[in-house]
Design goal:
single chain; 3-stranded antiparallel β-sheet; mainly alpha
Length: 272
């Protein structure tokens, strides 16, 4: 009597013959969307479990917002300092995640051969970068929710249409993500770590986040205003503080930085 077991790629039939065996699970990669989703979840968990990343993405922006909103030491020129600081700190949160955090994490993944191994997996390289970008967006949503709650607790009174900030946040994320990947894919991991943190500190001071750009000399202000962090913080401030419909100039600056950063990263990124 046949047992119906499969041996050597064949399966017994009730009549005593054999047919080609079936195997489960079937060989091959999972569907592309499922792979991207799984990689996105994995990247997000790694980021949220990293103490240094949490310091950059959550603790520093939250402390800056709380400290400078209660003690107006930079002279924002507004009745409530939080109305000026909240949009700038939201821009800082985008930069800390999309640029600083991503550059450092990707740089060390490249150094330790993680990217090299992922590049030969069934997940295409572009899909890996897509998963990293989606992970950044998920983290930014969590940041924005937390910082908004803190800002409201400090008396923030936002103006304008909140949906109008979405194009600014998306283009800002694209711009900083491109620059972060460019740095991670061209410099050594140690150099990326130092450079990313240095740029973070410089743009924190000179990017209009906590210090208004009109505090700087005219010549410096015209240059600083072209930086992506300045365009993002100024654009968010135009909407959320002054009630503007859409700051097209700032949006254009971010679009240029996004195109340049992503284009350069795509052309120059080295996986090993």
């Amino acid at each position: 009597m046949s047992t119906g077991t499969s041996t050597g790629g064949t399966r017994d039939t009730p009549s005593g013959g054999t047919r080609a065996g079936t195997y489960a699970p079937a060989p091959g990669g999972a569907p592309l969307l499922r792979m991207i989703g799984a990689q996105t979840a994995f990247e997000t968990k790694l980021l949220l479990r990293n103490g240094e990343q949490l310091l950059l993405t959550v603790i520093i922006p939250s402390l800056l917002l709380a400290l400078f909103s209660t003690v107006d030491v930079v002279g924002t020129g507004t009745d409530k300092a939080v109305d000026f600081l909240a949009p700038g700190v939201l821009a800082l949160a985008v930069m800390s995640t999309a640029f600083t955090g991503q550059a450092i994490a990707t740089g060390f993944e490249r150094r330790y051969g993680v990217l090299k191994r992922l590049a030969v997996s069934p997940l295409p390289r572009w899909a890996l970068m897509t998963a990293k970008t989606l992970s950044v967006l998920v983290t930014e949503v969590l940041q924005i929710v937390l910082l908004t709650v803190i800002a409201f607790a400090l008396g923030w009174s936002p103006q304008g249409n909140p949906l109008a900030v979405l194009p600014l946040l998306v283009l800002g994320t694209a711009a900083f993500s491109g620059l972060g990947l460019l740095m991670a894919g061209t410099l050594r991991a140690e150099a990326t770590l130092a450079a990313a943190n240095l740029v973070f500190l410089l743009l924190l001071v000179g990017g209009g986040v906590i210090v208004p750009l009109d505090k700087f000399p005219d010549a410096a202000r015209s240059v600083l205003g072209l930086l992506p962090i300045s365009a993002l913080s100024d654009g968010l401030r135009e909407i959320l503080q002054h009630g503007a419909s859409m700051p097209w100039g700032d949006l254009g600056i971010l679009a240029v930085w996004a195109a340049l950063g992503l284009g350069a990263a795509g052309a120059l990124f080295r996986w090993e």
